[in-house]
Amino acid sequence: MSNRATATIHGWLLLLPAMACLALFTHWPAVASFIDSFMSTPRARRPARFVGLDNYEQMLADPIFWKAMANNLWFAAGTIPMSIALALLMAVWVNDRIAGRTLVRMAYFTPTILPMIAVANIWLFFFTPQYGLLEQIVGAFGGRSTNWLGSQDTALYAVTIVAIWKEAGFFMIFYLAALQAIPPSLGEAAAIEGASRWTFFRRVQFPLLMPTTLFVLINAVINAFRMVDHIFVMTRGGPDNATTLLLFYIYQVGFGFWDTAYAAALTCVLLALLALVAFVQYGWLERRTHYQ
Amino acid sequence: MDRREFLGGTAALAGSFAMAGPALAQSAELSFFYPVAVGGPITKLIDAYATGFEKENPTIKVKPIYAGTYQETIVKALTAHKSGTPPVLSVLLSTDMFTLIDEEAIVPFDPFIKTEDDKKWLSSFFPGFMENSQTGGKTWGIPFQRSTVVLYWNKELFKEAGLDPEKPPKTWAEQLEFAQKLTKRDAAGNTSQWGIQIPSSGFPYWLFQGLTTQAGAILANAAGDKTDFANPGVVEALQYWVDLAQKHKVHPPGIVEWGTTPRDFFEKKVAMMWTTTGNLTNVRANAKFPFGVAVLPAGKKPGSPTGGGNFYLSKKASPAEQEAAFKFVRWITTPERAAQWSADTGYVAVTPAAYETEAMKKYVADFPQALVARDQLPTAVAELSTHENQRVTKALNDGLQAALTGTKQPGPAMADAQAEAERILKSYR
Question: Model ipTM?
Answer without folding.
Answer: 0.80
